[in-house]
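Example record

One chain of 394 residues, shown exactly as stored in the release files.
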Amino acid sequence: MSWTSISKQTRWKVWLKAGGRCEYRGCNKPLWRDDLTMKKMNKAYLAHIIADSPGGPRGQEGLSEELSDEFENIMLLCDTHHRLIDREEVEEHPPELLREYKREHEERIERLTGIESDHGTHILLFGTKIGTHRGEVNHDQARQAVLPDRYPNTERGIRLDLNDTGIDESSPTYWPAVKEAVNSQVGRLVDRKEGPKGNSIEHLSIFGLAPIPALAYLGRRIGDTIPADVYQRHRETGGWQWAEEKENPCSYIVDQPSDDGISKEGSGGSSDRSEESSESVAVRLSLSGDVLRADVEEALGCRPPLYTITIDKPRRDFLRLEGELRRFRKEWMSLLAEIRGAHGADVEIHLFPAVPNSVAIEVGRTQLPKSDPPISIYDHDKEKGGFTHALTLT
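Predicted structure tokens for this chain:
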């Protein structure tokens, strides 16, 4: 690197196009501050891809002098990666590779800075223990998922972390504690539409890892008064980005009760159950796995009319496309309207979900408090087997 061969105009252009960050692939470190003390400083290096002298790293007779002040030949790097490409691993970093790093980085900066000003979002991270496992959402992964369509309005996001309450789903105080925590922490966000720093919330990006009833309650508390995108963690990648819509989407199957109260697709059930009641209905959401009618009847102690939303082959990893989540939301809202019409506004819905996290949030978000009936949600107990009532959305 030689500062004397780089004009002020070229230096500024390199800085601006790099966004003030290291252009080495995977680094992206901000170069205008010290990461430990946050003190403002310039710790950037302007590094030549082809050295400005033939004897330098990747230097070439004739080209070195010709390209010494060319923007396309200069990268913005941190100290670590400047030393790496110019001293420690020169041969491992040929010009074509470094040009690729520079192009990728600058295209990404261009995309991000080109996002419209009204495309900001507040990232909401919600986590509770799921059994013995902590439900923790990685903020950096969440940031990557919202880009490039939106940009985060705050550096840290809004985190609702209930992992350290000291109780779990087996405790009778667990669900009331979850409701109280969500109510207290989400209240200001929703009621005032105000972020943690007092800034206005115009859009939310929601990420959740928690038991299904807790996620549904979070969705109910947020509602649909604030525009929001809900994200799903994908097991095969560990990330939250939706797959491209080029993939073939799944189709939802909606089954209604027949005259005898059994779902039309039929799944058995004991004949000695009490008569069906018009005051309550049951709904199975068999998407991540199968919910058996026998488990529904065991939990309720009766044989209510049974509605079902399912797919051809229920499985944990079926939800890969954002469009599939939107289609579920539409099917669910249609089913709620149908139940209201068939059973009246006073009917109670008993919901038995085997669904991805994002679907659970949408179940809560789409409930209309003034017109939809209350929804009692049941949680599957892996240790004891069967379902138990967790909480009710009203």
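Notes: The longest strand covers residues 120-127.
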